[in-house]
Amino acid sequence: MPLTAADRKLYRLKAEILSAVAHPLRLAIVELLAGGEQCVCDIARRLGAGRPNVSRHLAVMLKAGIVDSRKDGLRVIYSLRTRCVAGFLDCVTEALRARLAEGRAALHCLARRRGR
Question: Choosing a second label site near 41 at 20 to 30 A (CA), which of 50, 74, 76, 93?
Fold first, then answer.
């Protein structure tokens, strides 16, 4: 059965959210915010990145609905709006572990063949 227009729209919206975290710095920000809210200055310091760069990445995730922000005096504090995103990253980590284990097994097999 072909996808309906509503199905296509839903997949496009899902892709937008995935795209909003599909950058190494954004992934690091999500993992950092999984531990609790942080101001831009602390995020930048902990990740070794410039504040303007971190702010741009946070703006992308804010637009996608992944993070929330609030003002605290002159500081902007960010938190995860959808905490399940951090859980998804745990799933990605498990997929990487499985891939690495398969790679190790293949290397081990090659090493045994070389030893014949």
Answer: 93
Considering the entire predicted model, what is its pTM?
Answer: 0.80
Question: Is the four-CA dihedral 81, 87, 93, 96 of positive or negative sign?
Answer: negative
The answer to whether 77 and 69 are in contact (CB under 8 A) is yes
* Eight-class DSSP state of 83: T
Q: 62: how many CB neighbours lie within 10 A of its CB?
A: 17
Domain chopping of the chain, boundaries: 5-82
pLDDT tens for residues 18-50? 999 999 999 999 999 999 999 999 999 999 999
Q: What is the DSSP letter of 4?
A: P
Furthest C-alpha separation in the chain? 70
Determine contact, residues 41/48, Cβ cutoff 8 Å.
no
**Separation of alpha carbons 61 and 68, rounded Å:** 9
